[in-house]
Known about the structure:
Elements: H1 2-13, H2 28-42, E1 44-46, E2 49-51, E3 55-60, H3 62-68, H4 72-90, E4 92-93, E5 99-104, E6 113-118, E7 130-132, E8 138-140, E9 146-149, E10 156-157, E11 168-173, E12 176-181, E13 188-190, E14 193-195, E15 197-199, E16 205-208, E17 211-216
Parallel strand pairs: 2-4, 3-5, 9-10
Antiparallel strand pairs: 1-2, 3-6, 7-8, 7-17, 9-11, 11-12, 12-15, 13-14, 13-16, 16-17
Amino acid sequence: MGLQKFEGRLERMVDGTFSKAFRGELHPVEIGRRLTREMDLQRRVGVHGLIAPNSYVVHLSTNDFDRFESFLDALVRELEEAAREHARTEQYVFVGPVTVSVVEDPHQRKGRFAIVSEVQEGPSGLPAASIVLADGDRVVLGPEPITIGRLPESTVMVTDPNASRRHAEVRRSGNDVVVVDLNSTNGTRVNGATVRERTLADGDQIVIGTTVLRFETS
């Protein structure tokens, strides 16, 4: 399912006449397919489930790297999201944030590429966790809490009149991650329910005023 979404997004990103540039050439979809296959091959059994690599380096030939360079940032974001979606589908666990980098490798032939994967621990060796903002950006949760509110010094500052200055925190509690309402005026909701404190699960939706955030274990 994750790879299908990835391919759909690529079709929208690489559409029209621009897509003709990939006829008979290496297509970004091939990289996405290889990346998820690499994840499946390199998974291993861990204490909390199947641990998958979370760091990927894609080695492209000089020719292919030059062709991809104009939309490389967008491609990297899509590959990272495809990795997260595939992991959710297969119930894999990450020990750190998902990162994908694409590098030029003069030893690769045109149309060929290699992917090197690795399991890399996150900040302070903590399990992966992040808050995804409305624009798709994500804030990685380290040992310190993520603060949410209208105050400029908040980790996640929301310009929402329905949000309090110090509205909520997302913090670690042992192996869990919890969201805690900081006595806000309008309350904090998780998946539609108003909460004072709630242990979060992957994909949970946190609503602050009218601002929607998403919790992900990646």
